[in-house]
Amino acid sequence: MIVNTGLYNFSLDSFPSKLSPIISNVYADAAEQDRPIDFAISLRKDSLVRRFLKPQITFYSDIHAPFKPLPLSQAYALLEWGMNWCIAAHDFSRLIVHAAVLVKNNQAIIFPASPGSGKSTLTAYLSLNGWTLYSDEMAIIDLDNQQVSPLYRPVCLKNDSISIIKALHPEAQMTPVCKDTQKGDVSHLKGIDWQNYSKLEPVDVVGMVFPKYKKEMDLTIYTCNQLQAFEAMSKHAFNYTVLGQEAFNVVGKLIQKASLFEVEYNSLPELAEFLAEDVIR
Amino acid sequence: MKKLQHHLISAVLLDPKKGLNFDLDTWQSVILVLREEKLLATLYHLALDIAVFEQYPEFAQRHLYSASIYARRQSKQIFYEALLLQELLGKNGITPIFLKGANYTLRGSKNSQGRICSDIDVLVKVEDLDNCESLLLSQNWKSEKLTQYDERYYRKWAHEIPPLIHPFRGTVLDVHHNLYLPISGRSPKIELFINELEFTDDNFAVLKIPQTVMHSIIHLFMNENFSSGMRDLFDIYRLIKAYADESFWNELIVLARQSNFLVELQYCLRALEIIFSFEVPEYVSIALNENQLSWTQRIWAKHIFVNAILPQHPLISLSRQSFASSLAYFRGHWVKMPKTVLIKHFIVKMYNQLLDQVLGKHQLDPKQL
């Protein structure tokens, strides 16, 4: 089966048949393009006894397994994380930052991932409320013009955010919940369809926002200084140390062009309004 | 996905122009195989050198270029670590001698361009080993977590420090005091290799070229793991192509004789002939004439090692290769250890493997329980 994520083409050569409908739900509309595959991957059950007793599943990137097996019930999450790994471990032609990217009026805002930021909830919410989902996990940034490219991937929702988004958007297309993973309960939300995705182009980054979800706190906005933003971006870039000087330059240019904010929030609509009116130009 | 003919990989390495005739299906498979063989970035530099890179399809260019960036970073890291090591050990009167990948990179030989190494290997004198270990530990280097069994394997049988890892930089360092395991009874007199050293432009100590090549041969043909065999043999090929003259060959043959690795030298020449169509100079064949391989050794040379070295990838491999690899794996252990130790070692490894197969990998990992 071909899993086309837009920028990267995967060939998934063996996987538990139960996953078939889930993968189809997320990726089937991505037309099988007539282009070569970048990564050969598979999900395999390894051990004989473990097929019956606490069955496990291993992710393979071509012929080796970069991480330990997980319980079979987490197979879909493992597939998504495995694909992230393939991209982060092999693509050094662009800066790849652990961050969400959302776009309005052809202008992108980057939300670097920090634990407790509520990044994925925000990403899911925005993608269901008029914003274009460019990426939930990885900001793919061009080294020459610092534009960010879209990636055809779902949003990875965790724990409470699964029910929050379900309550707000019962129509949202979500994968069955994988329970008790390293990140807690996990479900993937389809935030864009192929028809819309295929029209997207790389766009400029106008803002970098560091959200913090605080239950008791009304929307509070702080401007963030360039040094803090630089530190956060370089820390969250998967391939920063490999790219070295080039990464330093790209991050430097990005933070000079973008407006930088730290926000504390407890209401998604209020935050969305601020982003649309004050960050998007 | 398109299956590849074996000779295609060596053909494109020997002559990157061949890539101009590949269709995209072929490129797709070539990229996957080269990635697993750690040779993607090597092809990038080879193609660049003869100015065909720009004519490759965009797909191939993207993957080759990307791999080269990673290799570039590794090369910088090697220089950086070498500088720190040189300073730390030098202050204490120890000269680290850089081996294998670090040797190639620091001396800047052509084969180092785009080469990916998993660790840095250095050689110190046996009497400096303890001092060297405590100096490194004082600079935050840590022993990699090993099972009790593996720790004992290193200390007792290999007479080596277990690999050290730097937790901030992620570098892995292997400190040796010989080029081959002392317990095997085959470790060469180290003086043959280090009495005369070469110093790079940046003043790093490395083995001289014949010694470098001899060590690469020992490393490849006296080992059990051939997973990077194609890359390692190609290193030897390119070193010979770049540096071999008559005095090189004479020194190499004398060194092989004195260190008792003449057979391995001939295995290597045979593999070079078969895989990279290397033409052994006539005077070399003549010099080796009186030490011809026995018929069993000839079978090993032609059928076992060659198959173990050729890439083993589902898109390319032949069924006889996995048999060859198992034999080569067994021989690698056989030559390494006295037989009583070997048998114990195999029993422990087989028991662990059996557990893995039955219960699944990592079943003994505390996190999984």
Q: Which features characterize this protein?
A:
heterodimer; A: 281 residues; eight-stranded mixed β-sheet; five-stranded mixed β-sheet; 9 helices; 29% strand; B: 369 residues; mainly alpha; 16 helices; 7 strands; 58% helix; Nucleotidyltransferase family protein (chain B); NTP_transf_5 (chain B); P-loop_NTPase (chain A); HprK-rel_A (chain A)
Mean pLDDT value of chain A: 92
Give the terminus-to-terminus CA distance of chain B: 39 Å
Number of structural domains of chain B: 1
- Written as H for each helix and E for each strand, in order along the chain, the element string of chain B is HHHHEHEHEHEEHEEHHHHHHHH
Largest contact between chains: A-B, 26 and 30 residues
Question: Which structural category do the helix and sheet elements of chain A fall into?
Answer: alpha+beta
Helix content of chain A: 25-40%
Mean pLDDT of chain B: 89
Number of helices of chain A: 9
**Integer tally of domains of chain A:** 2
Major sheet of chain B? 7 strands, mixed
Largest sheet of chain A: 8 strands, mixed
Radius of gyration of chain B: 21 Å
Helix content of chain B: 55-70%
Tertiary shape of chain B: globular
Describe this structure in words.
The complex is a heterodimer of chains A (281) and B (369). Chain A is an alpha+beta fold and 281 residues long. Chain A has two domains: 1-90, no CATH class; 94-281, no CATH class. Chain A is 31% helix and 29% strand. Chain A is built from nine helices and 16 strands. Chain A has helices spanning 20-27, 75-90, 119-127, 160-168, 194-197, 226-236, 240-243, 245-257, 268-279, and strands at 2-4, 9-12, 39-44, 56-61, 70-71, 95-104, 107-112, 132-135, 138-141, 148-149, 155-158, 178-181, 184-189, 204-213, 220-223, 259-265. In chain A, α3 runs parallel beside α4 (160-168) and α6 (226-236) packs across α8 (245-257). Chain A is globular, with a radius of gyration of 19 Å. Chain A starts with a strand and ends with a helix. Chain B is mainly α and 369 residues long. Chain B has one domain (6-337). Chain B has 16 helices and seven strands. A seven-stranded mixed beta sheet of chain B has the order 3-4-5-2-1-7-6. In chain B, a hairpin with a 5-residue loop joins β6 (197-199) and β7. The longest helix of chain B has 33 residues, at 58-90. The model of chain B is unreliable at 363-369 (pLDDT under 50). Chain A binds chain B through residues 11, 35-38, 40, 46-50, 56, 58, 62-64, 68-69, 90-93, 241-244, and chain B through 1, 24-25, 27-28, 31-32, 35-36, 59, 62-63, 65-67, 69-70, 73, 76, 313-314, 356-362, 365, 368.
